Amino acid sequence: MDYTAGEEKYKQDRAKKQMLWFGIISLCMTFAGLTSAYIVSMERKDWLDDYEFPQSLIISTVIIIISSIVIQMAKSMIVKDKKQIGTLLLVVTLVLGFVFMGLQYQGLFTEMTGQGYFMTGESSNITTTFLFLIIAVHIAHVIAGMIALTTVVVNHIRGKYSKEDHLGLTLGVTFWHFLGLLWIFLFVLIYITK
User: Fold this and answer.
1) Can you give the CATH number for the domain in which 52 is found?
2) pLDDT, position 53
3) Count: domains in the chain
4) 3 pLDDT exceeds 60?
């Protein structure tokens, strides 16, 4: 009977991992389409390349890298049964996630609009529309990541993770790393093609 229960848990864990990777691949395809359209649109005569790149987006990139390091440290501490340090590091990651989103918002809705560029309307063009769209879609996924991260924190506080059983934590950490890598890709693309 124990073998069957263990086998069932293995199947459930495997299904959860597959669902995460299915989601990640779907997101990659979404952003591949967006970035392809962005690159193709750069050939347009009305493409804007003389705007000032928002400093908040640069700072947010540093923040997302730091948050990825911190969440990996949190996982390491939790697996080593250092739960209090793990909790603190998870909360720090959550705070860094909010800082990241705030900086992204500031970069778009304060710095870009402060230069007179908008997503739509008379003051918009194809470049700014793509910038707003790509960053807004990424922020939407970061919100999903924040929900997942909050769930991980709550589950950790409830004692659901241990050295032997920490799949939910691992999946949350993997998704957070993916969001960070995705932003770094988008940042580099937007920055070097400015």
Assistant:
1) 1.20.120.80
2) 94
3) 1
4) no
